[in-house]
Structure to design on (175 residues):
């Protein structure tokens, strides 16, 4: 077992020197382990398989504070108890999903971006398609255009005003 100098742990691993010139007892590599609060090396905990999801019918696994979510375009592939299935349908209702590109928690619900076998990408919030992005996606091709499009959308609200300078959006709220 390797020992760690507490000073090395506080500074982090320093690989600027070669392994031959570092002080004896310095940590050079820590694989499948972690350093306890007391400065001792402990074996990492193992991952344990808990659920089996239908292969090819579900995509991704997302965690909120209280639940696990997986996604797909089929009606119900039969996921196990403890996992919530969220159906994200293509606008035509029949094109299958090919990948989940991104998920995020927002206001206690899941925001997801899905790609379909026809190459189209759609955004979803709490399982419902966000159609606002449809018009923007075809009219913007750079960060500057995205910033300008967002500023225009924000200016439609009475309580806020926005301006876009290059790729930066500045938002001002009513006092």
């Amino acid at each position: 077992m390797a020992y760690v100098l507490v000073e090395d742990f506080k500074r982090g691993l320093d690989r600027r020197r070669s392994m031959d010139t570092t002080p004896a007892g310095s940590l050079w590599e820590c694989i499948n382990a972690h350093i306890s609060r007391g400065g001792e090396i402990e074996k990492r905990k193992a991952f344990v398989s808990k659920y089996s999801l239908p292969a090819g019918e579900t995509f991704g696994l997302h965690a909120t504070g209280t639940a696990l979510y997986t996604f797909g375009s089929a009606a119900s592939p039969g996921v196990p108890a403890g996992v919530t299935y969220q159906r994200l349908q293509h606008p035509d209702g029949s094109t299958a999903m090919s990948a989940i590109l991104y998920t995020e928690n927002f206001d206690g619900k899941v925001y997801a971006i899905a790609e379909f076998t026809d190459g189209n990408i759609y955004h979803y919030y709490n399982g419902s398609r966000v159609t606002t992005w449809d018009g923007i996606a075809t009219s913007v091709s750079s960060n500057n255009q995205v910033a300008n499009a967002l500023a225009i959308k924000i200016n439609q609200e009475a309580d806020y005003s926005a301006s876009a300078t290059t790729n930066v959006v500045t938002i001002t709220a009513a006092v």
